[in-house]
Amino acid sequence: MNARNYLDLLRQMPIGSVDDLTAGQPFVVLAPHPDDEALGTGGLIAAACEAGQAAAVVVITDGSGSHPRSQLYPRQRLIDLRRREVERAGALLGLAPGQVSHLGLPDTRAPKEGPAFDAAISAITAIVRQAGARSLFTTWPGDPHCDHEAAALMALAVARRLPELRLWAYPVWGWHLDPLLPVERPRPRGFRIDISRHQVRKHAALAAHVSQMTDLVSDDPDGFRFSAATLEPFLGPFEYFVEMAR
Fold first, then answer.
1. The whole model's pTM is what?
2. Which domains does the chain possess?
3. Tell me, what's the pLDDT at 246?
4. How sure is the predictor about 245, in pLDDT bands with cuts at 50, 70 and 90?
5. What residues are paired with 158 via a beta bridge?
């Protein structure tokens, strides 16, 4: 099938609940970059926190690749900024500071194999165990970004160590695939959840990522910023979760 067909199937998945995804148990969100947690799972996190359900976020990379030529925000200052942003976003969704962890791997260079990959798997596995999580959420394997692909591979590797863990994938850049691009993936199975009660909090969490949503970092002409078009898929009343095959 092509991307248009696949995304249409996502939009037609049955409406479920947070419990359908997590069975009411603690869960962990694996985000390739600071902001992916709010984009794909902000409503899920807000709903869980409101219900008193334990959630945690692990951010894989340091976010330093979004504005590589900025002089106002050189690498370490940008890293510090984006860490503050994700922690502020988490607080707006209901997470305590200790529920957001950072692996600090270089942006655009998240490993897909080798010693650094193995170390990341061990770190994520330890966080999942400490949280008592029964579900792990990560970016959709078809997302066209190297760090998102790495995140999906890491989630699968963690699941091999923790066979009881249920895996779910949330699309981010997959929403912007060329509609005619072939998608070599099984028909999606999963749920869309109604987050309309939590949209205000999700939108506030998105806005907390000021470096990605505004011209705060103004001196890098190649720097990243969301546009109305790129942000649009994340502003609606549903979030979408595909069960990952192992």
1. 0.95
2. 3-12+26-243 (3.40.50.10320)
3. 73
4. confident
5. none
